Amino acid sequence: MKITKMAKANEIKREWVVLDAKDKTFGRLITEVATLLRGKHKPCYTPHVDCGDFVVVINAGKAKFSGMKLDDKEYFTHSGYFGSTKSKTLREMLEKHPEKLYKLAVRGMLPKTKLGRAIIKKLKVYNSETHPHSAQVSKQG
Fold first, then answer.
1. Is the pTM of this model over 0.70?
2. Domain 9-66+98-140 is of which CATH architecture?
3. Ranges of residues in the chain whose predicted pLDDT is under 50
């Protein structure tokens, strides 16, 4: 009789993966990041357990976008007060806060639960080549 093995949180072996965003399409890179964070690439994947790896994205501001997205796509914020809606274009977000842009995009692909909030903490995004996690890094993507 075969029994499906469910992964436990203390049995998960996490790795550090570095992804270079330079000249890669933004959307395809984000889906790869979400898959690695969630742990769906591992044979021991269990939906209710955080099985994923740590992901470090470098050169975040150098990703490619197709079409007119840089000028047409807008991100909105609202403080809760009347008339406080503010918007920024994708180009502004990419120049000023690329880390925030990546976290917003990945968060949309993760579960909207405590598990999703724990998973997003394993994403590290840097706008340059250097990052402080060089001692942990084991795989280059």
1. yes
2. Alpha-Beta Complex (3.90)
3. none
